[in-house]
Design brief:
The chain is an alpha+beta fold. The chain contains three helices and nine strands, in the order E-E-E-E-E-H-E-E-E-H-E-H. A hairpin with a 2-residue loop joins strand 7 and strand 8. The longest helix is centred in the C-terminal third of the chain and has 16 residues. The radius of gyration is 15 Å and the shape is globular. The two termini are 22 Å apart. The N terminus is likely disordered.
């Protein structure tokens, strides 16, 4: 079946501890910690997910491994956006069209927090 204008359908559970990604027709294909290692000097992402978790507490002074989500909401917008971009690329691979994404968020979040998740996902789409 060919859907003009959309890439894959991806569902993401953006959890405080773990991110889970589901691709329609393929099932759950990603389950990784929501951890990102960032170089403080350059702002570049050094590692995401499992690789970044292994760096927690073991990084040089200029690299900080953090969890960009707190209690199910974004605590660091820029790092969350980079983490989402990494996971979407990892799940979706290369495609001519951007994926259609659905993200689970806690029901208790405010409208501002909800908008932050939507903006981060929109900006992260490849």
């Amino acid at each position: 079946m060919f859907k003009f204008g959309w890439g894959q359908d991806i569902g993401i559970d953006l959890g405080t501890a773990t991110v889970i990604a589901y691709v329609k027709g393929r099932g759950i294909i990603l389950r990784e910690p929501s951890v990102v290692a960032v170089d403080n000097n350059t702002g570049e992402v050094v590692a995401v997910g499992n690789e970044a978790r292994r760096m927690l507490g073991r990084t040089p002074g200029n690299i900080v491994a953090t969890r960009p989500l707190r209690d199910g909401v974004i605590s660091d917008y820029t790092v969350t956006e980079k983490m989402l971009k990494y996971f979407i690329k990892k799940v979706g691979g290369k495609s001519l069209f951007a994926p259609r994404i659905m993200i689970c968020i806690p029901s208790r979040v405010t409208e501002v927090e909800k908008k932050a998740v939507i903006d981060a996902a929109t900006n992260a789409r490849c």
